Amino acid sequence: MAQHVRVVLVDDLDGSEASDTVSFGLDGQQYEMDLSDANAAQLREALAPFVAAARRSSGGRRRSAAPRSRRPVADRDQSAAVREWARQNGHKVSGRGRIPNAVVRAFEERDAAAEPVAEAPKKRKPVLKIADPFNPEQEAS
């Protein structure tokens, strides 16, 4: 059975059929809108005086003032478990906010130490070779 899939862009302003996705940036944020020809022209016309007076940026993404956390935000249950463990083991942690990386690492190392160490693979038994019954001159080893 054949299928024909048609993707229709819908204008984000008025719900009519859109013809284009328009991208623009403001205050360090990038935006995209699906717009009809008429609304795209209206947006470009409204921005024209500002674009004419503006300087072009390098096009690269700007970094936010605060660097992003390298570790994703942990869920509440995990944070609660880390805090409880830390208090029981003499670490100072607040009731809210970020848990120091050293405490999180110590908690994770505790988990790693509790896991059983995998045994080394056992040596395989030697395979016995049997003489070829069709070749009586060959010896078994």
UniProtKB/TrEMBL annotation:
Basic residues compositional bias, start-end: 58-71
Annotated stretches, region: Disordered: 54-97, 110-141
Q: Which residues form the Lsr2 dimerization domain?
A: 1-57
Gene3D superfamilies per UniProt: E3-binding domain, Lsr2, dimerization domain
Q: Where is the Lsr2 DNA-binding domain?
A: 74-109
Recorded GO terms, molecular function? Answer: acyltransferase activity; DNA binding
Keyword Protease recorded: no
UniProt KW keywords: DNA-binding
Q: What name appears for this protein in its UniProt entry?
A: Lsr2 family protein
Note the InterPro entries from the entry.
E3-bd_dom_sf, Lsr2-like_dimerization, Lsr2_dim_dom, Lsr2_DNA-bd
Stored Pfam families? Lsr2 (PF11774), Lsr2_DNA-bd (PF23359)
Traced from the root, the source organism's taxonomic lineage reads: Bacteria, Bacillati, Actinomycetota, Actinomycetes, Pseudonocardiales
